[in-house]
Amino acid sequence: MAAPVMPADPDLLAGNPKRRQKESIVKTVFAGAATTSLVISILIVGSLLWKAQSFVGDLISPPADALAETRDGMISLSNLWTEQWAPRFMQFDIKTLLVASVIVTVVAMAVAGPVGLGAAVYLSEYASPRVRRILKPILEVLAGIPSVVLGFFALRWIGPNIVQNLFDSAGNQSLLAAGLGVGLLTIPLVASISEDAMRSVPNALREASAGLGARKFTTSTRVVLPAAVSGLVAAFIVATSRAIGETMVVFLAAGGSGNSAQFTVNPLERGATMTAAMASQASGTDGTIVETAFNSLFFVGAVLFVITLTLNVIADRFVRRVRQQY
Amino acid sequence: MTEVRALNVDDTLSDDIVVDDNRVVMDVEDVSVYYGDFRAVRDVHMPVREHEITAMIGPSGCGKSTMLRSLNRMNDLIEGARVEGRITYQGIDLYGPKVDPVEVRRRIGMVFQKPNPFPKSIEENITFGPRIAGVPKSEFPELVERSLRSAAIWDEVKDRLKDSALGLSGGQQQRLCIARAIATTPDVLLMDEPCSALDPIATGRIEDLMQQLKDDYTIVIVTHNMQQAARVSDRCAFFTTEIDATNDRRTGQLVEYDRTDKIFSNPADERTENYVTGRFG
């Protein structure tokens, strides 16, 4: 048996109590910052949903001032499914906005998908490190262009020079022009996420492919792209959600009035997307005073929120799957 | 064959003629490989003979993997890599202007240090090479079986050809990679430390496999493991590093290239002897 150890001074390992106290204050401050952003998010979503449900409630039991704005003195849930979006006249046809949004998004992704993916393949598989060092920042500058600038570009250049040149029937504002503008805006996003996904494919697979006599194109399309497919899908979904949520470009270039937009499935016509309708209504150009009409924008916002949230959750799943694979 | 052999002996030329019976299929003459300004390995002479296993041994950083990757132009994938000297296959300069590196790699296949199956099914791994080479699909089933049998893995995977290759063990994955390389019917197989990521049992399997493959292919293997080189190879090249006086960086060089039994029993160079007897490296 060894001799018992003499107990040392009890404060030997106590350290500096002030420092420990400071540490716990710092922790609280950071926790507070984290909580703030969380609380604000919850408040935003909460107020969105609250106002949206109050709007729906108004449709079920309409207040007098809202009824006064209608031609026939009737409001019901069927006002959500008419032929136009005209909140002033209690016409809240959500499909008018939804279809316009879908048209813009499809056009945007038809541009941003192939171009962004092509750029990603080039950057990840073909470009020498030097070229990549130059090109990648340029791409990121494109991502930094304010959307209002791109909106003007779509309005003044894409509309007249591309859309109207190709289609005689198109006006200088159209869903197509807006879609092309949003597409330009989304290219960097698609390219950047896709490139990350492709670069995370291990080099060993490229070597294996080259060692079997595959050319670079074959390696890119048959090995790298399939291996990165989850990330590519995620890029596409994130970009889609960005395109649906884009406001300024469609507000300027799609030309649809948020106060009276007709239902259309023709991309050459003007149209109001969900975002553009909200922006125009919130900016109150026609002096909407009826509470119910104003609250409709919260309802549209809630629909938009559900769509983008769903897309983001799906994208997140895909990104996670890509991380698990290697 | 026996008649040719007898004739050689009757000629009373040196014994080496009999031993060197096999045709030289690849020749490395005076080769140095650079990465940018850095010379990774210099002055290599190394004829590779048909149906033999040629091993490259030596300490880390001696340029043996670099040398191996120059033999099928895999080094082309590395920015700034450059070969000086002459590497020939069937007498054709591999770095000649008319040569397509893709064609080179179809004839000179490669197996890598870490098993690198594609994240696809076992079957798709095998058919990848033939598919891009334009082999008709109708030949795939037979080709898959033949390749997997040659790599001694058929019995283990025949019931799950559609399963992902990533579900196999490390040793199985490596044999699958060998089968995949064989499926493109190459002449020469380059193996870059094919067993370094495997346990002894899997290593034993791969070594047995190499002996079988020798009848149909020419194999060049890089290995860290001297016992492995002694066990499997017919010829052995010993590389080492030396400090380059001009820039104080290490350059690999070939010290000695000879029959394996000679390298291990009676090496000509003292450095080889020190290495194989374990006094260095």
Walk me through what this model shows.
The complex is a heterodimer of chains A (326) and B (281). Chain A has 326 residues and is mostly helical. Chain A folds into 2 domains: 10-69; 77-322, MetI-like fold. Chain A contains 12 helices and 3 strands, in the order H-H-E-E-H-H-H-H-H-H-H-H-E-H-H. Chain A has helices at 17-60, 64-68, 94-126, 129-144, 147-166, 175-199, 203-211, 216-227, 229-245, 248-253, 274-282, 291-325, and strands spanning 84-86, 91-92, 261-262. Chain A has a 3-stranded antiparallel sheet with strand order 2-1-3, covered by helices on one side. The model of chain A has no long low-confidence stretch (mean pLDDT 88). Chain B is globular. Chain B starts with a helix and ends in a 5-residue tail after the last helix. Chain A binds chain B through residues 128-129, 202, 204-215, 218, 222-223, 226-227, 325, and chain B through 72, 74, 77, 79, 102-103, 105-106, 109-110, 112, 114, 116-120, 128-129, 132-133, 177, 180-181, 184.
**Pattern of helices and strands of chain A:** HHEEHHHHHHHHEHH
Structural class of chain B: alpha/beta
How many structural domains of chain A?
2
Major sheet size, sense and barrel closure of chain B: 10 strands, mixed
